[in-house]
Amino acid sequence: MKIELTGKTAIVTGSSAGLGWGSAVALAAAGATVVLTGRYGEKLQAARDRILQAVPGASVRSHVADLTTAAGCSSLVEAEPSCDILVNSLAKNWTPKNFFDTPDEEWDTSFQASVMPGVRCTRGYLRQMMDRGWGRVLFLSSVEAVIATPDSLDYAFTRAAVLSLSRGLAKIAGDSGVTVNAVLIGVTMTEGTETVLRAMLPSPDTDLYTFGATAVKQRYPTSVDGRVHTVEEVTNLVVYLCSEFSSATTGSTYRADGGILESLV
Ligand SMILES: NC(=O)c1ccc[n+]([C@@H]2O[C@H](COP(=O)([O-])OP(=O)(O)OC[C@H]3O[C@@H](n4cnc5c(N)ncnc54)[C@H](OP(=O)(O)O)[C@@H]3O)[C@@H](O)[C@H]2O)c1
Predict the structure, then answer these.
(1) Which one of 73, 74, 133, 190 has the lowest number of neighbouring Cβ atoms within 10 Å?
(2) CB neighbourhood size of 230 (10 A)
(3) DSSP secondary structure string, 100-166?
């Protein structure tokens, strides 16, 4: 199976780093023109340079905007009016919090940063995809959507929200040729995860992946492979779900979680 996305434009929200960037580089490697988004010009330029290093000759554009605002999303749709593949990756960082000490403002911020960018960007691009008869919309979510660990409920509820959003949008897209899906992700070695794990390392020479495995098993005892995944392991699934080959898959939630979730389907 050779995935070929030449001629497609892929927009990835929150793609200056992490799984957004990883998705962008993987889509670029499959031939797509990719559009990176983020709040900071210099960071985006560095992200673009890193893609060009990994995929020489890739077609990469970038758009600086704060997609957690309506104005930021409008500016993206105005600057990049055409989109075949939309990967909604942007979400506010996971940070542990005590439920009783989390004020209303934090819930609002989480909702604006982690749910509304997906609503607004999909609203901006879905109709044109349907009119053209082809498109892919993907939401990156987390096992926390289902597990809802009590230390991060303001994150978990946003990850659950994008699952119902994804399912409903798939129904709107119907048989138009546009698919809408979501991916439930476990613990992945992004820059953010690396920072969190490094802060917990018992000694500086402890191997990060070995320590990560211990942390995964502690937080998620049901994990089948009990380890941290690489960005590429997750983005392989992202690229497949954005490709021609996944045409029978819509309204679904796929997993790249190492088996953390126990349910059979
Ligand atoms: N990493 C994991 O282990 C993991 C696990 C489960 C699910 N996920 C999911 O994967 C997706 C990406 O997560 P990630 O860990 O790769 O993300 P990340 O590294 O924390 O962030 C990547 C991007 O998000 C943007 N961003 C972060 N906080 C923001 C804020 N408050 N406002 C606006 N932009 C913000 C950053 O853009 P700027 O340049 O503007 O800062 C950056 O481009 C999310 O949907 C997340 O729920 C990740």
Answers:
(1) 133
(2) 14
(3) GG--HHHHHHHHHHHTHHHHHHHHHHHHHHHHHT-EEEEEEEETHHHH--GGGHHHHHHHHHHHHHH
Q: Give me the residue label for tokens 């890739």.
A: 58
Report the alpha-carbon distance of residue 122 to residue 129 in Å, rounded.
10
pLDDT of residue 221: 98
Q: What is the per-residue pLDDT for 140?
A: 98
Ligand 1, residue 139: give the atom nearest the CA: 45
Q: Which of 40, 125, 155, 240 is catalytic?
A: 155
pLDDT at 206: 94
Take residue 105 and report the two structure tokens written for it.
């403002």
Indicate the top mutation candidate among 63, 87, 88, 93 to test ligand 1's pocket, ranked by most ligand atoms within 8 A of CB.
Answer: 93
The yes-or-no answer on residue 209 being catalytic is no
216 lines ligand 1 (CB under 6 A): no
Does an H or E element contain 230, and which? none
Domain of residue 166, residue span: 9-186+229-253
Residues of the chain with pLDDT under 50: none
pLDDT of residue 234: 98
- Residue 67: the pLDDT is 98
0.90 exceeded by the pTM? yes
- Alpha carbon of 162 to ligand 1 centroid (Å): 14
Is the minimum distance from the CB of 18 to ligand 1 under 6 angstroms?
A: yes
In a domain, 39, yes or no: yes
Task: Identify whether 123 is part of a domain.
Answer: yes
Q: State how many domains the chain has.
A: 1
